[in-house]
Each structure stands twice: as structure tokens, then as C-alpha cells.
Design brief:
It is a single chain. It is built from no helices and 27 strands. By secondary structure, the chain is mainly beta. A hairpin with a 5-residue loop joins β5 and β6. InterPro entries: KIB1-4_b-propeller (IPR005174). This is KIB1-4 beta-propeller domain-containing protein.
């Protein structure tokens, strides 16, 4: 890592003062009027205003592992930023800007070798992976690739087509994806899970596909139509699926929230109502992360969900999986207009 100079706790360009309050919900106001961000701690409800240089002249992609990929909008130089410490790890420059709509993940297999790697065998490279939502393509980069590292594009054609009556078919893309022990799992279809693996002896990063059948959970209802939003995430080395179920075609009212852990022996999603001292954090772009609850002042066994479909409020929802209860929370003061949807900064994942 290349550390930045330590910033004072009251420095408006540092998140040091809010380090104990992670996870944070960030409201970015863009260039007007002062390149500022309003930051909400969901643990204690406190609000702070910052002018973070990392969010000025950079495209920033948050990851479930806590690191943020920064891409200089002018030079396309890249780095991984640790918001808690200010440290940055340089990465190769991109040859074009990142996709307008995408998801970013980090898989650290060096400091936390996967269980499936035999003793004495080198683990696959730690990777940064960007899933392009606009076309079926992945962008890959080795974190510790040295002078030879570069961003590699990997198109794919295994997601099929999205067909809407009256419109030309378009290629489906990977949307729900999580990194678990060096493997990138995604929902290939309603009943199929895909797994992407990078092997250590590949001359440059390349993800190989394996699939297995695992029916996607449903809810019992007489409603003629159920819409499901799905989120994949890693927690304590396990693969979880969180489903938000909506009745009808609207997305205003969540009918039910379900959490499921993958039983790889049975190849099925098993519903769980007790996730222990953990909280799941969900946001726009299918962002999903796990966070120790007590350590960070969160309600254990809950799902924190921040996504305003209508963009007319800054609310977030808290669903208690064990009790089946829910509540809606919001900032205690008005939030100025935003340049993007609110996004999460979560604690750094162990091993990253």
C-alpha cells in the first residue's frame, strides 16, 4: 500500500472522524455548490459533511470488501482506496472509462487462501472485477500483478437474451454476483448458479465458468405476479442470497424479505432467519455486503436496504430477519440534491 498523509479528525477532506461509525451511507452532491458529500452513520444517525478529494475528478466504484476503485476521469489512472486509512494501492491505467453502469468486486486470495486450494499449491491471483451492466463483458485486473499487470476484457455469451415484446432482443448481463473464497458466484438464470474461477497458472487473468442447478427461492402467495430483487453476498466464507419480494409489477411496497445460505453439498438455497451477529447491507446496483453488527453499532440479524426507486426520498429500510419486523429510517435533516444514488462505504473485509 502507499499511505497518504494522516488527516486530522476534523479535516473536511478526511473520513478519519467517521471511522468508528462505519458503515456509512454517502450522499454525493457532485460539483455544485462545493463538491461536498453528506455522510450518514446508520448506527447512530449522525450526519457529517465532507469535501473528499477522492470523489472529485475521479469515478469511484465501491466494493463489498470495503475498498473503493478510483479511476481518474482525465488520465484513467486507477487505484484501490481504503476510506478508513486513506491508503491507496496503485493499479494499471484503463484504456477507456469504466462502464456507465457496472458493479465492482475485489477477491483477495493471497492473505486469505481459499479452502479449496491444496496445501503447497499457489492460490489464484487476487483480482479486481468490474461487471459491465451495459454489455456482456467483464474487466479484470490482478491486484498484485506488478509491472506486467493490465486490465483485461473478457466478453461472454452464456447469459442468453432478454426478449421484450415489440423490442429487439438484447444480451443479458451478469448482475447479481459475489466473491467467495476466490470464486465469483452469480445467478445465471432462475434455477442455475454460475461460478467463475481464475487459475494461478493463467498467463493473464481469465475466468473459467462452471454451473450447477439450484432453484431460486419463491414465496407462497396467491398474487398473480411477484417481482423479486436478488442480492448475492459473502459472509464468513459462505455464499448468501437475499431476496426482496414485491407483489404486482410495482416496486413501491416490499411484501417479504428472505435470506438464504447456499448448501453446496445439496446444491440448494436454505432459508435462514438467524444470521448471528451480522447485518447485511444492500444498495443500488445490486450492491450487497456483510458487516459485524455489535462491533459497528448495527442491529444484529437485520438487513439494511437503501435504494430509492422513485428518487424522491433518502430513506433506508431495516428488516429484522428473525422477528419479521421492519422499520424505515431517514436522515434527521434535509439532504441537498444528489449527483448519483446514495451508496455504501462498509468496513474493510478481513483479509483484504
Amino acid at each position: 500500500m502507499e499511505p497518504m498523509l494522516a488527516a486530522a479528525d476534523n479535516d473536511p477532506g478526511s473520513l478519519a472522524a467517521a471511522a468508528a461509525s462505519f458503515p456509512l451511507l454517502v450522499y454525493d452532491h457532485g460539483e455544485q455548490p462545493d463538491n461536498s458529500q453528506t455522510v450518514l452513520s446508520v448506527a447512530d444517525g449522525s450526519l457529517r459533511t465532507y469535501q473528499l478529494p477522492e470523489l472529485q475528478n475521479f469515478r469511484c466504484l465501491e466494493t463489498p470488501q470495503g475498498l473503493v476503485l478510483m479511476v481518474d476521469t482525465a488520465s484513467l489512472h486507477c487505484s484501490l482506496w481504503n476510506p478508513l486509512t486513506g491508503e491507496k494501492m496503485p493499479l494499471p491505467a484503463m484504456d477507456e472509462p469504466p462502464p456507465a453502469s457496472c458493479r465492482c468486486l475485489v477477491s483477495d486470495t493471497i492473505s486469505s487462501p481459499p479452502d479449496w486450494i491444496p496445501d503447497g499449491e499457489a492460490p489464484p491471483d487476487s483480482l479486481v472485477v468490474i461487471c459491465d451492466f451495459t454489455r456482456p463483458e467483464l474487466l479484470l485486473c490482478r491486484i498484485r500483478g506488478g509491472a506486467t499487470a493490465k486490465w483485461v476484457r473478457q466478453p461472454y455469451d452464456y447469459m442468453g437474451l432478454c426478449e421484450i415484446p415489440g423490442k429487439a432482443p438484447t444480451a443479458r448481463t451478469i448482475v447479481e454476483i459475489a466473491a467467495v473464497q476466490g470464486i465469483f458466484y452469480f445467478l445465471k438464470s432462475r434455477g442455475v448458479v454460475g461460478a467463475l474461477v481464475c487459475f494461478a497458472d493463467d498467463p493473464e487473468p481469465h475466468l473459467e465458468l462452471v454451473t450447477f442447478e439450484a432453484p431460486k427461492p419463491m414465496i407462497a402467495t396467491d398474487a398473480p405476479q411477484v417481482v423479486t430483487l436478488s442480492y448475492l453476498l459473502e459472509s464468513s466464507g459462505e455464499l448468501f442470497l437475499v431476496c426482496l419480494f414485491f407483489l404486482g409489477c410495482g416496486l413501491e411496497q416490499i411484501e417479504e424479505v428472505g435470506a438464504y445460505v447456499m448448501d453446496f453439498g445439496q446444491r440448494q438455497w436454505c432459508r435462514v432467519t438467524d444470521i448471528g451477529d451480522r447485518a447485511f447491507i444492500l444498495g443500488p446496483g445490486q450492491f450487497a455486503a456483510s458487516c459485524p453488527a455489535a462491533e459497528h453499532g448495527l442491529k444484529e440479524g437485520c438487513v439494511y436496504y437503501a435504494y430509492d426507486f422513485l428518487r424522491n426520498s433518502n430513506e433506508f429500510h431495516i428488516f429484522d430477519l428473525k422477528e419479521g419486523t421492519r422499520e424505515v429510517a431517514r436522515p434527521t435533516q434535509d439532504i441537498p440534491s444528489l449527483s448519483r444514488r446514495p451508496f455504501w462505504l462498509v468496513p474493510i473485509h478481513p483479509g483484504v
